[in-house]
Amino acid sequence: MPERPDASVPASRNPHLYFGGAPNLRESSAPDARPAHTSHAGDRKTLDDAARLWSVGKRRDALALLKAAVRANPDDLPLRLALAELYREMNSPDQAGRWGIVIEGWTTPVERDRLARMLAPVGIPRDDLVEFLALTGPVESYPDLEEVVDGPLAAHVAQRKAAAATDESPWGERLFTLAVICWITTVVGGVLAVMAVFIVAFFDLADARTAARIGGGCFLAAAAVSSWVSAGVCAVENRWLGAGVLTIVGMIAATLAVVTFTTT
User: Fold this and answer.
1) How far apart are CA 22 and CA 152, in angstroms?
2) Which Pfam families match (predicted)?
3) Over the stretch 45-84, which tens digit does the pLDDT of each residue have?
4) Alpha carbon of 6 to those of 11, 14, 25, 218: distances in Å?
5) Among candidate residues 210, 207, 249, the one with its CA nearest the CA of residue 226
6) What's the CA gap between 106 and 14, in Å, rounded?
7) Which sign, positive or negative, has the C-alpha torsion 199, 201, 207, 212?
8) CB atoms within 10 A of CB 249
9) Rounded to an integer, what distance in angstroms lies between the CA atom of residue 63 and that of residue 99?
10) Helix 208-236 / helix 240-262 crossing angle, nearest 10 deg
11) In terms of C-beta density within 10 A (0-12 exposed, 13-18 middle, 19 or more buried), how is residue 241 classed?
């Protein structure tokens, strides 16, 4: 059977008395955790208020209250431990690792890995981790955090860079440039076609209907080509929904162009 929390530990230093799953500091799995600053009435009130919110189902408000308190008092281990334990109970290993990583030996390997995976896409510079994780000193001051930064985080960042380099295709930039040229040509051609039809009709130089049919057909054909080239750009970038939509638009434009040219 699990041991009962040590009643001799003051309430503000014993998160277990507030949140059922959190251990008190004397029974913490982090025996080497550095001491927190002296507890005071404000800490006790924060834990009480968070426990009350949690008990009535307002979990988001309880977490927000504790996070604000930790940021205001980043060296207060009872507050930080209570917050991290709540995230652990909620099965949020990335957030449990985020708020508990400063307590040496407290986080699990899974939580440290999830923390690294959370940080890798964001690309937060090493020095900015002090603010993001609400630290009181540089990364080097926290052995577990330094191990995460130099180990799994560095590995995940390297993997993402390698994957990005592998996904880059020389055709992507070329197709994008071609698509831009095609669309510019299509728009300019469409404007010129409208102007040509207007001039032909105004000065009665030829059959305006025939001119409009030819100009409209050329515009639709150009739009179809531009759509298909743009679909190729989307396909290279693995944006398959955009590729599919543009392919359909190109087919519709091409069909209308054929109809326009063949109509007498």
Assistant:
1) 27
2) TPR_19
3) 889 899 999 999 899 999 999 999 999 988 888 899 999 9
4) 10, 8, 9, 84
5) 249
6) 16
7) positive
8) 17
9) 11
10) 160
11) exposed
* Domain positions in the chain: 11-165, 170-262
Question: Cα–Cα distances in Å, from 58 out to 51, 62, 184, 253?
Answer: 10, 6, 55, 54
Instruction: Give 110-145 pLDDT, tens digit per residue.
Output: 998 888 888 887 777 787 888 888 888 888 888 888
Total-model pTM: 0.50
* Biggest CA-to-CA distance, the chain: 103
- 60: tokens are 């988001």
Structure tokens at 144: 């577990």
Tokens 């180990």: give the residue.
Answer: 151
